Amino acid sequence: MADFDPLNNISPLLRLLALLSLCLLPFIFFPIFRRQKQAPPFKNPTPQSYPIIGNLPGFLRNRHRFHDWVADMLSQTPTSTLQVNNFLNLSRGVCTANPANLHHLLVANFPNYIKGSRFHDFLHDLLGDGIFGIDGYLWTMQRKLSSHEFNTKSLKYFISDVVTSQLDQNLVPYLYTACNENRIIDLQEILQRFSFINICKVAFGVDIESMDNSGFAKAFNDAVDICSSRFFAPIPAVWRIKRSLNIGSEKKLKESIKIIDDFAFEIIKSRAKQEQYDRIYPDWRNQDLLSRFMAKTSSEIEFDDEAKKRKFLRDIIISFILAGKDSTSTALTWFFWLVNGHPHCDRLILNEVTTLDPTFTYDDLKSLNYLHAALSESLRLFPPVPINSRLTVSDDVWPDGTHVSKDWFADYSAYAMGRMEKVWGPDCREFKPERWLHGGDGVFKPSDQFKFPAFHCGPRTCLGKDMAFVQMKTIVVALMREFEIIAVDGGATAEKMMNPPYTLSLLLKMRGGFLVRLKKRRFNPN
Length: 526
Description:
The protein is α+β, with helices and mostly antiparallel strands. The protein has helices at residues 12-37, 56-61, 66-76, 99-108, 116-127, 136-150, 153-180, 187-204, 216-231, 237-245, 248-280, 289-300, 306-325, 327-340, 343-353, 369-381, 414-417, 421-424, 465-482, 494-498, and strands spanning 81-85, 92-96, 113-114, 185-186, 387-392, 396-397, 403-404, 409-413, 483-487, 515-520. It has 20 helices and ten strands. The chain crosses the membrane at residues 12-33. It comes from Gossypium stocksii.
C-alpha cells in the first residue's frame, strides 16, 4: 500500500499558497519580534486588544456593526482616543473622535500626516495619481487647479442645471411610473444610479446612459467595492497574495480597471480633438470638469508627452467621479430614512420646500434653513465617509497626550464623533435638526468643522461641499413636492437608530437597500 500523502488531496494552487506561507514566515515573525523589542515606552488606551492577535477577535465579532463598535470603545476612553493593534502587530495606529486631536491631525501638524503608502496600496489601481490618494507637490498642484474651478459660479450653475435637467427628464418620470404601479422600489439603488449619471455628466460632459459605455458603470462599481474590501481586510496579506497571483477579486479588479481606462482615455482623446474649437467658441456644453482641466493643463502645466497628459487627466477625473458617485446618494438615503421615522421633521421640511416657486433657482435654495439643518443632522449621524485615515511621518504627541509613532496609521471617525456625548451632549444619538438652528429666528447655524468632519477639515476640506448641499436640496425639493416617500421598514425608530443597517465599506451604504413605496401628494404646493 502506497504511503498516504495529504498534499495529494489538495489542489496545486493551495499547495503553492502553503509553500509561499512557509517561505514568508521569517519575514512575518522577524518584524514582530523587532517591534516587540522596540515597543514604545508609553501606553495609550487599547480596549479589546490581546497579545499577538491584537483587535482581531473584536473586529470579527463586531464586523456587522463595526462603526458602532468603534464608537462604543472611543466613548469609554478618557479622551475619545484609542490605540489599534492589528493581527501579529504587523501594523499599529490610533483612532480618535476628539475635536482637539482632529485639529492637530488635519491642520496644526498637517505635514506630519499624509495619505502615504497605505492609501497608495489600497486605491492606486483605481485612482492612480489622482488628488485623493497623493501628497506633496502633485497634491498641491491638483488642489490649486481644482479649488479655482470649484469656486467659479459657472461650474456651480452648470452642476445645478445638470441635476435639474436629469430630475425633470429621468428621475421624477421614473418615480411617477413606479408610483402609479404601486411598486416597492429600492430608493438607494435609484439614487445611486441617478448620482452616477450626474457625476459622469459633470466630470466627462457625457450622458452615460445614452452612449455605449462598454460596461464602464459596472466596472467602476466593481473596482470601488474591491478596493473597499482591501481597507477592511482582517489580514491584508491575503489580498496581496491574490494580487501577486492574479486570482479571485484581484484579477477581477485588474479587468475592471482596463475597462475604466479604455472608456476614460477614449473620451479624453475625442475631447482633445475639440479643444482648439472649444477655446474659440466656448459654450455651456463645455463647462464639465474634463474640459476645464484640459484648458488648464494646456496653459499652465507642461507634460513630456501626450500620454502623460492623458494619464494626468484620467486620474483627476476618475478621482472626482469616485468622490461624487455615491456620497450624495448615500447621504440622501439616510436622510429619507431618518425623516420617515420623525414625522414632525417631515412636516417642517415639507412646509418649507412648498414655499418655493416651481421654477426655483440655485439662489432660492439658500432660504431653506430647516432643510439645511435636517441634512446636516443626517450627515452628523450618518456621514457618507464614516472613517478616514492618515499615515504618520514622525513621532508625535496629540493634545490629549496620545503618543503616535512614525509609520503608524492615524484614523479619525466622523461616525463616532457624531455619537460622542462630550461633543454633542446627552441627546447625541437622536435626530434633532433644531440643534443646527439659531435660537429665535430659525436661521441655520454652522457647527465647528472639527466637531462635524463629514466633509473633512483643514487643507483637504471637501471642495464640493457647497455643491453637494445644492444637489441634495434640489433632489429633496423635487421629490418631496411630488411624493410621500414611505419606508417599508417604518424608517428610523429609536431602536433601529441603536443598530442601524449599514454595510462595511468605504462609504456608509444601507445594508439591503432602502425599500419604499411612493404616494402622490394630495395638494397643490402653490
